[in-house]
Specification:
Helices cover 45% and strands 12% of the residues. By secondary structure, the protein is of the alpha+beta class. It binds protoporphyrin IX containing FE.
């Protein structure tokens, strides 16, 4: 039987929530609004507080189609809602704000650090690390799963690949939070839509933390250029037969992108994924009883959580999409968080089903040049964390869930108090 609403629909969501406002997302993903848009107005104009606006594309088929057409819908002019002038865009450009062929060249260089094979060759050290962190947390009996586990693990895991010392991971997590969570006062004093951040307009995410990350990246590069280590950073800096190494500036920008993109995305997938399992005891039991379900459970967690809510493109010419006239220069926003619940694509989309097959979700994008570079790493992080958690616990209960991130870009719960039986 199809249920009518997503069980986590916020009470505040009357079907007409303001998608652009960071405050909307403090209550949770506005599932009812996204569903209404998919049904009634799938390419819909949304006004923004600063007088600008964007086209919200909410159906799966349209999201996939526009993401594939990178020449009509460019990433060059930014991938977030924030409007940047030409100077800002240039200074803050990363892999994400490029189109082919410039994107292809850079992407080919960094791909080699994140292939499935490279990532899975780190499985054993990452599993050991996960076990150590879980043992410490579980000994507490009752604890904040985000603070003790989900916020700590992804950067430590990424650090293992990059060759970053464990002792530096906490600092990188803080910087990563200041960058990507630049709209949430818990993580930064420089809240983008509340204080004047003009002084930092040429720095990633308008955040002073961007400068610190650049400095850290530069030191790591200098150290390895003289004496390569056995790690992904060294590999990215070495010349190879299939391409030049990254320049210093490319490396710094790429490192900052990793610190932002590899940090809280997996954190919130893990947290919301655990919440989904606890909320659906039959599914949790099935996974405990049959560990071979782990891979499809991870995919369903990725779909269910779709942590990166959207990315923006800009129309390079006048276009018609879904009967709406999109003008050259208009912002066009692809709502992954909506596409993954489109009933035209997914049977019974509000049912959390760890056996869902097929499950062609867009949590990592799909069909476009920017498909998540960290997809295999994120999958492995979620898989190992769940496997090790299940191996060490007999039951998990949620005591309290509080405070969602204030961000229209990343959706997640900042604190999740759990009680565990071991
Ligand atoms: C569950 C966790 C994650 C989610 C939901 C996620 C989501 C996404 C999405 C939606 C995109 C854009 C796809 C597109 O535009 O077509 C993306 C790109 C990217 N992600 Fe992830 N990501 C996750 C984890 C990671 C991790 C762990 C890393 C670190 C290695 C990472 C690094 C990147 C990078 C560098 C890009 C840009 C790729 C490009 O422009 O070519 N992500 N991610």
């Amino acid at each position: 039987m199809t249920i009518e609403r997503h069980p986590w629909t916020p009470e505040t969501d009357d079907g007409h929530a303001d998608l652009a406002s960071h405050d909307t997302w403090v209550h949770g993903t506005p599932y009812a609004t996204l569903e209404r848009l998919r049904d009634e107005d799938p390419v819909s104009w949304v006004d923004e507080a600063d007088g600008s606006g964007f086209w919200a594309v909410t159906r799966y088929a349209d999201v996939i189609e526009l993401n594939r057409r990178w020449d009509d819908f460019t990433s060059y002019r930014g991938i977030r809602l924030e409007e940047m002038d030409a100077e800002e865009t240039e200074a803050r450009r990363t892999l994400m704000e490029l189109d082919p062929p410039d994107h292809t060249r850079l992407r080919r260089l960094v791909n080699r650090g994140f292939t499935r094979r490279t990532v899975e060759s780190y499985e054993e050290p990452i599993r050991e690390l996960t076990g150590d962190i879980l043992d410490e947390a579980l000994a507490l009996g009752e604890f904040d799963f985000v603070g003790e586990v989900a916020r700590v693990l992804p950067m430590r895991m990424l650090g293992r690949l990059l060759g970053v010392p464990d002792d530096d991971a906490a600092q990188l997590v803080d910087w990563g939070d200041q960058l990507l969570s630049n709209s949430d006062p818990e993580y930064t004093d420089h809240v983008v839509d509340q204080v004047d951040t003009d002084e930092f307009r040429l720095i990633p995410f308008r955040s002073p933390a961007g400068l610190e990350v650049f400095r850290y990246a530069q030191e790591a590069a200098i150290e390895r250029r003289g004496c390569p280590h056995d790690d992904v950073i060294s590999r990215l800096l070495e010349p190879t037969t299939d391409g030049e190494p990254l320049s210093d500036l490319e490396f710094n920008n790429f490192f900052a992108l990793l610190v932002a993109a590899g940090n809280d995305t997996t954190r919130y997938s893990l947290t919301e994924g655990l919440r989904a399992l606890v909320d659906h005891p039959d599914q949790f039991r099935a996974l405990r009883d049959d560990p071979s379900l782990i891979d499809s459970a991870v995919e369903e967690i990725l779909r269910w959580t779709t942590v990166t809510t959207h990315f923006r493109r800009t129309a390079t010419s006048d276009q018609e999409v879904g009967g709406r006239a999109i003008a050259e220069g208009d912002k066009v926003v692809l709502w992954w968080a909506s596409a993954d619940y489109d009933q035209r694509k997914f049977d019974d989309p509000y049912r959390f089903d760890i056996r869902r097959d097929p499950n062609d979700h867009v949590a990592f994008g799909r069909n476009g040049p920017h498909l998540c570079l960290g997809a295999w790493l994120a999958r492995m992080e979620i898989r190992i964390t769940l496997q090790e958690l299940l191996a060490r616990t007999t039951e998990i209960e949620i005591v309290h869930t509080s405070d969602r991130l204030r961000s229209n870009l990343i959706s997640g719960t900042k604190h999740l108090t759990v009680r565990v039986g071991t």
